[in-house]
Amino acid sequence: MAKIGINIATGSLQQAEMIVGIDLGTTNSLVAIIHPDTKQPVALKEFNSSSLVPSIVHFDGFGNPTVGEQARTFLETDPKNTIFSAKRLMGKSYQDIKDNAQFFTYKVIDDDTASLVKVQVGNQFFSPIELSSFILKELKNRAEHILKTPVTKAVITVPAYFNDAQRQATRVAGKIAGLDVLRIVNEPTAASLAYGLGLRQDEEKTIAVYDLGGGTFDISILHISNGIFEVLSTNGDTYLGGDDIDRSIMEYWLTEGGITMEELQQHQSLLQSLRLKAEEAKKHLSTHDHFSTNWNGEVLSIKRTDFEQLIIGLINKTIKCCERALQDAKLTIAAIDSIVMVGGSTRVPAIKQAVGAFFGKPVNDSVNPDEVVALGAAIQADILAGNNKDFLLLDITPLSLGIETMGGLMDVLIPRNSKIPTSVGRQYTTHKDGQGSMRISVYQGERDMVKDNRKLAEFNLTGIPGMPAGMPKVEISFLINADGILVVKAKELRSGIEQFIEVTPQYGLTDEQVEGMLMDSITHAKDDMQTRALVEATTEAEQILAVTEKFISKNQQLLTSEEILATAGAMQALQLAVTINDKNLIQNKIEELNEISRPFAERAMDAAVSGALKGKSI
Ligand code: ADP
Ligand code: MG
Predict the structure, then answer these.
(1) pLDDT attached to residue 288
(2) Per-residue pLDDT for 455 more than 90?
């Protein structure tokens, strides 16, 4: 039942439970909703201020955080306690970021390990998840203040290249901020939605989304069909954006004034004010031909034509990335139906022109480029809220689905976050001679061993005709239909026998349980990897032992007694390694056994081949 509330400020009726769309950006973040009256997406802002909240957290002497515009003023004056670009650290270890360590003016703990990074402020330590949660909490508070209603549900956007760990980290940040994150959406997908692309069910399109923000550049090629967005490729530069444009203007002025950047760095407040002037100039030049101002008792000015010269290199770099993205998607420029411009920096006319010229088409730039992602997130939120019934509800699988293979390993057929409907097939075979049936156990979860996952169903494929191990071709296919029902089918391709079963994967699972299963997979990632490696080595060893034994008993006449003895010794050593569960030892012993058996296996092969050739007349 939907609850109805009254907006105290306007007196209008509104839904009590509003799902908001959030763009959690590297430089700026913001919240958007679908306006209950106009049904159009709008970015939330307080009277007379910007909708953008700088993604910056400043900690005072007591360790209390302030977020946004206020925190921004401390960037130059209190850099050690002012955290910007926390998004760059999401789901990263120090090893991942160490090449760019000088970028961060605050303390990123450099333990040089593979564990996730933390930021040190005074004697406190913060994870990027916590830092992002401060920003999300501020956005939530602002939204509640403006809407005069509680905000507890959100759709949050992330870059298309974010991996599972980074998406999960974003979800957790939302949770800490008191937000139920209903969906994580790709930024380029949200931007396309804001332009109405992909909203018609029968629409099929290929879109390029060019996103130049404050410090990052992303180009994504998307394919939309039947309301499903598929990312064909992504490219970009994680250290290229509006900040670089500002820096080039500063350098231009400094060169004119005969001052070096190093000299200026001695005067933090002058440096900061010059940076602000440069950004002001850049923005002004997006709509004017000339900019001029007073700074430190001097007149600074720049013409648009000179400015455009300064950033030619930067623009060309982004175009190179577009070329690469097209190559990776195996597409030509002609295949792109629409180009969507995202990010504050795409307001620069020279950039729009260059992108339009490259793709040979006018670009979509009618929606405010720094709000477009949040607006699209709001559209997605509205669809989830069930307010937009015409639109196919795109759903994804929250947990991976797979079957049990040798040694109790989970073999994933449909990874988590796959869009549904979807189907996949994979071939398996028997491991015993004459094996007449095969047990198919279907599991759900993220752990490497099936025993740690949730069993959904089990059935036997029987009546496989007697064949040597490895001969039968059993195709297992998973199909999830639009209602979320999973059909698992097993078919032996040589004989045509088949069997299938239907299950509802989400049946009886609460959101908390799904969340718990995901968290478990993160906590146990390392153990799981080790277990998987051991099980794989053991399975390989067992197969090799079985094959070798069969080989020896069949081909005794081809071998010398020394060879038989040496092989038996190596087999025994391998068996022992398997018994004591030592992965490295197993691998060594497999190698040793292979070394011994390789020469006579080759000899036997030659004998078999020449035997076979003799029997045939060519
Ligand atoms: P992000 O996605 O990285 O959070 P945004 O999309 O908010 O970043 O873009 C921020 C960048 O856009 C800043 O570098 C800002 O200076 C730049 N920007 C904003 N308005 C303009 C403008 N009118 N002309 C040029 N650049 C602009
Ligand atoms: Mg952005």
Answers:
(1) 97
(2) no
Query: How confident is the model at residue 388, as a pLDDT?
Result: 64
- Where is the domain boundary, 466, 482, 508? 508
Same domain, 467 and 566: no
Confidence of residue 443 (pLDDT cuts 50, 70, 90): very high
Q: What is the CATH number of the domain that holds 537?
A: 1.20.1270.10
User: Atom 12, ligand 1: which residue's CA is nearest?
Assistant: 344
Among 282, 304, 311, 367, say which to mutate for ligand 1: greatest number of ligand atoms within 8 Å of CB.
282
370 touches ligand 1 (CB under 6 Å): yes
CA distances from 374 to 158, 200, 386, 416, 474 (A): 11, 20, 19, 25, 47
pLDDT of residue 100: 85
Q: Is 213 in the pocket of ligand 1 (CB under 6 A)?
A: yes
263 occurs within a structural domain? no
Task: Report yes or no on 32 lying in a domain.
Answer: yes
Query: Ligand 1 in contact with 87 (CB < 6 A)?
Result: no
Q: Is the pLDDT of residue 471 over 80?
A: yes
**373, 394, 415 - which closes a domain:** 394
Q: Domain holding 126: CATH number?
A: 3.30.420.40
For ligand 1, atom 24, the nearest C-alpha belongs to 283
Residues 38 and 130 in one domain: yes
Based on the domain organization, do 410 and 367 belong to the same domain?
A: no
| Nearest CA among 422, 420, 424 for reference residue 395 | 420
Assign residue 81 a region (left: φ > 0; alpha: ψ between -120 and 50; beta: otherwise). alpha
Q: What is the mean pLDDT of residues 109-129?
A: 87
Q: Which numbered atom of ligand 1 lies nearest the CA of 28?
A: 4
Q: Are residues 382 and 405 in the same domain?
A: no
- Write a three-state SS string for 353-407: HHHHHHHCCCCECCCCCCCHHHHHHHHHHHHHCCCCCCCCCCEECCCCEEEEEHH
Q: Are 155 and 183 in contact (CB under 8 A)?
A: yes
Residue 337 has pLDDT above 80, yes or no: yes
Domain range for 558 is: 524-610
Mind listing the pLDDT tens digit for each residue in 380-415?
898 877 776 555 444 567 788 999 998 899 999 998
- The predicted pLDDT at position 508 comes to 57
Strands 65-67 and 82-84: what pairing? unpaired
Which residues are known catalytic residues? 23, 87, 187, 211
- With a 6 A CB cut-off, is 343 part of the ligand 1 pocket? yes
447 shares its domain with 592: no
Q: Which atom of ligand 1 is nearest to the CA of 342?
A: 6
Together in a domain, 592 and 558: yes
Per-residue pLDDT for 340 more than 60?
yes
| 476 in Cβ contact with 488 (< 8 Å) | yes
> Does the model's pTM come out above 0.85?
no
> Looking at residue 17, what is its pLDDT?
65
